[in-house]
Amino acid sequence: MTGLTDRAALVTNVEGRLREVGRAVRRTMLDAMPDGEPVQWLYGPMREYPSRPGKALRPALCLSAGRAFGASSEELLGIAVAIELLHNAFLVHDDVADGSEMRRGRPTLSATYGVAAALNAGDGLAIVAGQVLRRATRRLDRDLADLVWSEFDTMALRTLEGQATEVGWQLDNVENLGPDDYLHLIMHKTCWYTTIHPLRVGAIIGSGGTVDLGPLVRFGFHFGAAFQIRDDLLNLVGEERTYGKEILGDIYEGKRTLPLMHLLSVADDKDKALVHHYLRQTRSERTPDLVRSVRTLMDDYGSIDFTKEYAEGILMVAEEYFEQAFTAAQPGPDLDFLRSLVPYVWARWR
To answer: Name one Pfam family in it (predicted).
Structure first.
């Protein structure tokens, strides 16, 4: 009972902190939105994703890491908001590319307004992110501001490389993939902009550019990979009401997730042929029966359990790298929050 109580308290504390950050960041994002015309087809849609509560992990990482290394909230908030605005811009484009129907519990922009208007709104969010970042970096000395902008450039390129890799796998119908391929993909597509970049930027500002970034990359990669695998699993086993996105959407989209890669590696010839047939279909051709069949095979061949165990191994490595990454950080609530994130991800699986 004590273990269950401790896990519940951990989840409550972490999610309470994330909600607190989310409220502050949403207010600031919406305050940064331009007023003008056309409201119906640009400025209104631009406000939709920032208005919907998300995890707020990225700004929370930036704020906590920055304060742990000595920065003030005032120095960091604009940077954290720019990160979250760019994340929302990426989401709009991701939803278009994936043909997704749900985002944060409501229809996607492309489902509501059409692809063209959604892409315009996504571009607009990216522009506002740059405006917010420019204002925020005026607080910093020039060399430090240049370093922060360079970090954003690197993050954006790594993310695009990952997105292009995933799109290429689907367009070329690549099937002979394994865990190393998956980790390479999410290092670029997910980890860099979800965990590594927010941690690095916060630490750079807090330390005045003197922090050793290598350990932060190693911790951020392993923590981010485990977090992404957890999200992949929730897409397969979660409930749409709490998950906020289309359940089984990854299967409908033909995404090369770790459970799918494992299934392809262990299925017998008959079942592997079914998976190959499924992968060669377009999203519109993948019927609910076909999608459910692939999902059932993941249970039959232990792909869900394999993925959970794989992620738990990555989390253990992340825990080891944490102390190296934050050896120069100041003790306090921000460091405690960052330290609690690894057991938090673990607790959410229990």
So the answer is: polyprenyl_synt
